[in-house]
Amino acid sequence: MRRSERIVRITEELLTHPYQIISLTDLAKRFEAAKSSLSEDLGIIREVLEMEGKGTLETQAGAFGGVRFIPGISNEEAVSFVKGLGRELATGDRVLPGGYLYMTDVLGRPDILDRAGRMFAERFGKHQVDVVMTVETKGIPLAIATSRYLHVSTVVVRRDQRVTEGSAVSINYVSGSGRRIQTMSLSRRSMPEHSRVLIVDDFMKAGGTAKGMIELLQEFRSEVVGVGVFMETAEPETKLVSNYVSVARLSKVDEFARNVEIELGNYFSKNYENNVLGNIQQ
Q1: Average pLDDT of the residues in 96-116
Q2: What is the average pLDDT score of the chain?
Q3: Which of 27, 38, 111, 240 could tie 211 with a disulfide, CB 3.0–4.6 Å?
Q4: What is the CATH number of domain 3-71?
Q5: Angle of the 75-89 helix axis to the 110-124 helix axis, nearest 10
Q6: Cα angle, residue 107 at apex, residues 80 and 50 outer, rounded to 5°
Q7: Domain covering 75-275: architecture
Q8: Known PANTHER family for this protein (predicted)?
């Protein structure tokens, strides 16, 4: 096998199995190459990934050593992505009653989901996520995109209990506006207890849905390692969830003038670590 072909095949193997350790011994057998040659190949792959801002490679030494792909996204690409997203969403015909923004079409586009998924994976990957959780329905594609880059399962919280879900845990929670009580349900078979869970959602206004999912996870004795939202609103300024990471921020919506302003989310804050851990369980 030519070296160029081997590098392409190894790269494909790594990119399709993020965060999964691939044995160097297995690679040497598959490609009939010496480990020293593979090390040189991996050095080239790592250099290109880091140069393009797509992530990096981590290697483990020893007889049972291996390599794994850690997805990432450069700050330049992330900023450009959100600014372009803002220009696309900041049109008057997307304004909905109540200060909401129509984003369903955008959250169905693979290119947008891919970048948002990489952003969440880059931010939360080091926290040993076991499961990505979202609530039906618009957040599902975003959660799946994130799960792909973290190489973990996606769990969907239902608005009501379904017979096909089997035994389930249901809780009532107060909406962010505080005006109504809603219900969410999660099958007991969807995830094991004591899991480390990343919550991902498409939109956050007051944070009532995210807070409800955090309370639901207490019934599974699971730990919330982070909350990631695609779009948050500027108002209300104080959310029911104190720690979260947002990709973009809806800073102004004028229903009458049909004016929309979107800015960078707190993902780009220098103090983003404070938005990941801390007292997120409270």
Answers
A1: 90
A2: 89
A3: 240
A4: 1.10.10.10
A5: 140
A6: 40
A7: 3-Layer(aba) Sandwich (3.40)
A8: HYPOXANTHINE/GUANINE PHOSPHORIBOSYLTRANSFERASE, PUR OPERON REPRESSOR
